[in-house]
Amino acid sequence: MTRKLFIKSYGCQMNAYDSTRMADVMAPHGYALTDTPEGADMVVLNTCHIREKAAEKVYSELGRLRTLKSDKAAQGERMVIAVAGCVAQAEGEEIMRRVDFVDIVLGPQVYHRLPEMVAKLGRGGKVLDTEFPAIDKFDSLPKPSAAQGPTAFLTVQEGCDKFCTFCVVPYTRGAEYSRPVAQIEVEARQLVDLGVREITLLGQNVNAYHGAGSDGTATGLGGLIRKLAQIDGLKRLRYMTSHPRDMDDDLIAAHADEEKLMPFLHLPVQSGSDAVLDAMNRGHTADDYRRLVARIQTARPDIALSSDFIVGYPGESDSDFEATLALVRDIGFAQSFSFKYSPRPGTPAASARKQVAEEVMAERLERLQAILNEQTSGFARSLLGKSFDVLFERPGRYAGQLIGRSPHLQPVHVFAPEHAIGDIVPVRVTEAMPRSVTAELVMARPNGGQLAMVAS
Ligand code: SAH
Ligand code: SF4
Ligand code: F3S
User: Fold this and answer.
1) Is the beta carbon of 167 within 6 A of some atom in ligand 1?
2) For a surface tag, which of 108, 247, 258, 402 has the fewest beta carbons within 10 Å of its beta carbon?
3) Is the CB–ligand 3 distance for residue 262 below 6 Å?
4) pLDDT tens sequence across 388-416
5) Cα-based angle 342, 347, 352 (whole degrees, multiple of 5)
6) Distance CA 136, CA 57 (A)
């Protein structure tokens, strides 16, 4: 009998990857994914602990699930509710205590054991598993069972040893770990066999990657990219999230000479103030970041940059904040994510004395986002009239329209036939929206006759 599995993913791309892998783990046990929690036999909330708001979402979602679970029970059936991810890791016992109808709480390092946990439940039992096991979960994961389109995530590195003073990740995801090159290559080939054309390599600090190569010596991210680029059928590679401290020469060189590596880089800087960067334990100055960007731009002049920012880190003064605005103006970001500082339990910054007032944070965030939003829409406008290749990912909002991504990760809306999903096709931009562009197919008339799409 097929059972219905609903997984809701919060937070970063690594959680999105873990959610697809949890589906892969449950598939051989008769669980098939469904897109609503109504009537599901099992619901997994794959949670994020990065900011307070993210963590709170879990409890409100659990509130909604309570009714669905009792509806199901009224029909004499059970809905298994599992809380996974970083909130589970950080607050597992509290979830078990506060929410009596949660059946399973599991951390990000043990989801390969999900079928055993379900089996252990028996009638009415509960399971809490937030271990960091010595055995690599990646060794126990099955082949990817299905691709969700022509693009896919592939986690190559996990955990973090950097301990930025504001961040929960080193506590929820544990120590830095890199998967061996051969294991990643196998998974990449399996994804390509399922129709994937673009892979984004993931890690909390993906450019700290140093996995064992075939001869046992450590391979950096640049080396891994070069290796994967040899896979026929794989057309595009990306990676995220990178730390400025780990951008080594070989990775920068890969941007210059590896055609499949797309010209987009998410390189969070957090702040433009040296005092704040130091207090955050980021390990570089604002000028180090400027120089690094200059080197990357020399290797790949058309690279589009993206960053994360935190405003209102404890002790951030007006002049610290002005330094962030100055850095943003100097660099120019095609994309960005910016947040008010959120104190996280157990992190050093949470107990710092000089917390910044909420109104000050709100005002700073607004000023920062005004500039960043203008840079994002300016980037979209700069593409007007330009031609580039788009990888079509899925149907768009309007009938006959597809959505794809440019090499710079820009969402592109194009009227194109549905069978073009998965194709890489040249288009020309006709309209710029704030965060995306509209484009038309660049047509050729090969026999002077009917219009045909140019093959990539
Ligand atoms: N490893 C990445 C970031 C991972 S977390 C890096 O080092 O850059 C993703 C983003 O969430 C961070 O870049 C940061 O901008 C934001 N973030 C993390 N902790 C936060 C906190 N306590 N308050 C507000 N934003 C936070
Ligand atoms: Fe968090 Fe810093 Fe590690 Fe990024 S590098 S995951 S911000 S501790
Ligand atoms: Fe959130 Fe955990 Fe990712 S805290 S951002 S889901 S690593």
Assistant:
1) yes
2) 258
3) no
4) 999 999 999 899 999 999 999 999 999 99
5) 75
6) 30
Q: Is the CB of 45 under 6 A from ligand 3?
A: no
Above 50 in pLDDT, residue 454? no
| 277 and 161 fall within a common domain | yes
User: Angle at the Cα of 411 (from 406 to 413), degrees rounded to 5?
Assistant: 100
Count of other CB atoms within 10 angstroms of residue 61: 16
Centre of ligand 1 from the C-alpha of residue 50, in Å: 7
Residue that has been written with the tokens 């873990």 in this structure: 18
CA separation for the pair 393, 424 (Å, rounded): 10
Distance 106 CA to ligand 2 centre (A): 22
Measured distance CA(217)–CA(445) in Å, rounded: 52
**What does the alpha-carbon distance between residue 234 and residue 260 come to, in Å, rounded to a whole number?**
8
Distance 255 CA to ligand 3 centre (A): 27
Q: Are 289 and 244 in contact (CB under 8 A)?
A: yes
CA–chain centroid gap for 38, Å, is 27
Q: Could you report the per-residue pLDDT of 15-71, keeping only the tens digit for each?
A: 999 999 999 999 999 999 999 999 899 999 999 999 998 888 999 999 999 999 999
Residues with CB under 6 A from ligand 2: 160, 162-164, 167, 169-170, 204-205, 243
Q: Looking at this protein, which amino acid is placed at residue 274?
A: D
* Mean pLDDT on 204-216: 93
Q: Is 12 near ligand 3, meaning CB less than 6 Å away? A: yes
Residue 91 is predicted with a pLDDT of 93
Last residue of a domain, one of 129, 145, 179: 129
Point out the ligand 2 atom lying closest to the alpha carbon of residue 167.
1
Give the nearest ligand 1 atom to 349 CA: 22
pLDDT, averaged across the chain:
94
Count of domains for the chain: 3
For residue 453, is it within any domain?
no
Closest by CA to 144, choosing from 207, 180, 103, 187, is 187
In DSSP notation, 44-94 reads: EEEE--SSHHHHHHHHHHHHHHHHHHHHHHHTT---EEEEEHHHHHHHHHH
- Any domain includes 53: yes
Pocket test for ligand 2, best of 169, 171, 307 (most atoms within 8 A of CB): 169
Q: Which of 84, 103, 129 is the last residue of a domain?
A: 129
State whether the beta carbon of 251 lies less than 6 angstroms from ligand 3.
Answer: no
pLDDT score for 134: 66
- For position 68, which CATH number holds? 3.40.50.12160
Q: How many CA atoms lie within 13 A of 183 on its CB side?
A: 18
Instruction: Output the CA 129–ligand 3 centroid distance in Å.
Output: 18
